[in-house]
Amino acid sequence: MLLARMLTAIIGIPFILVCVYCGDIIFYGMTFFVSLFCVYEYLAILKKYNPHIFASLVMSAAFSIFLYFFKNFPVDKIMVSAVVMMIVFFGVEIFKENSNLCIVRISSSFWGTFFIPLALMHMVYIRNLKYGMELVFFIFIVIWTLDTAAYAFGKVLGKHKLVESVSPRKTVEGAIAGIIFGILGAIICRYGFMSNILTLWDSVILGFLIAVIGQFSDLSESIIKRDGDIKDSGRMLPGHGGVFDRFDSYIFTAPIIYYYVSKFLV
User: Fold this and answer.
1) What pLDDT is recorded for position 2?
2) What is the rounded CA–CA span in Å between residue 77 and residue 75?
3) Three-state DSSP class for 162?
């Protein structure tokens, strides 16, 4: 398991860094497929609700393309996209013979189809900002650092469960270590390659935000998996589980960091 985890990281991390460096359509392409796999795994987790898998995947792919090629469009266009998705889901249900639990199917399908692509696309929006490459590197490095610290310290020193009903293995000690090392990782990034972009205080704030929101995002995926009664979202990444398992930390982190950076830094 450890060997598989290391090999996946050895292959995956350089691939991600190259995509970030290239930016534009290359980074978008990576984000597009990550988003699509996350949507698929999310729907598979909730298969007991019989979500609309085919319609969801088609619309999430179309929505991701729309979000990329119509950059900086007004919020009302996003709302129109949401309404179209709901019309499709309700339309499918109207013409089904059995409408039992239709709201559960529609709700579970809509969340994955709409929110996951929209959330992850904010990583592309960050990459398109001034100093976007450095900012995306920064986010990835901080999240990788805090995840590693939270796992290691939780395993060695963890005694108090963080939210046992949601994720039995996560501990308070691990979460605190994740925050501390997330901030330290942010500070190191600042002095390493972002001294002309971030002040020390900026790096502390961003490190703290990423560490807290990233762990919250991870717990959010955990509660979805708990509902689906599974341990991993998939098996695509040996030693790491599914794509959704590896990118869950960005679901809430990417939008919040994008709007924070847009408002206060660039």
Assistant:
1) 54
2) 5
3) strand
